[in-house]
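Cross-check.
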Amino acid sequence: MIADRVGEAEIGQYVGYLGIAMMVGTLIAPLLGGVVLAKAGYNAVFGMTLGIIGVDIVLRLLLIERVTAITWLEKAEDEPHKEKQQSDLEHNTRGQVVEQKESDVQVQPVNAGAGRRTKLPTVLRLLLSRRLCVALWASFAIGTIFAGLETVLPIHTQEAFGWNSEGAGLIFLPLTLPSFLGPLVGWICDRFGPRWPMAVGFLCLCPILTLLRCVNYNSLDQKVLLCALLTLAACCFTVTLDPVMAEVAYVVTAKARKNPEAYNGAGNKAYAQAFGLFNTAYSLGNTLGPIIAGLIKDAAGWSTMGWVLGLLGGLTAVPVVLWSGKPTRENQQ
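Predicted model, tokenized:
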């Protein structure tokens, strides 16, 4: 919907607002769940969840998509001119009508042949793009690191600090606040491209997550250190997730401009499929991340879990630097 509504030169900035919703929604869930569980009990958590789902359903039903709105506007504009068009048609001669039909018949075989030039499905053509594959791997890495840390963090705070569900939920607050920098990061991607923000974010995740090994006993200094490291990690998540989503849109726009017939004109259909691939990769990371992080923590401890997730971020920076996109000429201008 965002790609269909705004131009390529501003899509990164608007994707930043989407990143705020994704990060805040994902991180505020443990915070609210822990507080509600401690204050109101087990059943209240499910009541809150069902209420949010109900609001989401209502908003989806009230949503008017751009295609539907354009159809309504065109009908409203055509009604005043309808009578005039009918009177003009009455003055047309029968020979002009037959001539128009013959011209239409001659045009139809050309369009039919043009539509059959490309046989590969849109999804396969997208997967053949090296840039898109790098973006999908980056989204998988972000989902794995993020979900793994989100799963193990409450357990470690309970073991190290003795916190209950309320304290374990509040520790996610430092991870939430930096997500509001998303529009600024998106604006930078629109002007200078997503390559270097992604590369810097993934590289910085490596030492930050490795330093989590220093948080291992109960003291005020350790709590402050943990909050500081989580805030820095959240900045890295923002600097990587928003450019990845923008990169997906950039890839489709570039391919649609190069081959408009194969990508359905402006590429609206390809946008939906490309972001579907992004959601698949990110969801796969969210599924495997808790399993990987939990197994590593049980087998080798909190310290090993931190540097393994950091190593994944550092390695992801390599293909990002080599093959991710550069700013387009329109964005540079």
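The chain is about 85% helix and 0% strand. Residues 220-258 form the longest helix (39 residues). Passed to J.P. for a second look.
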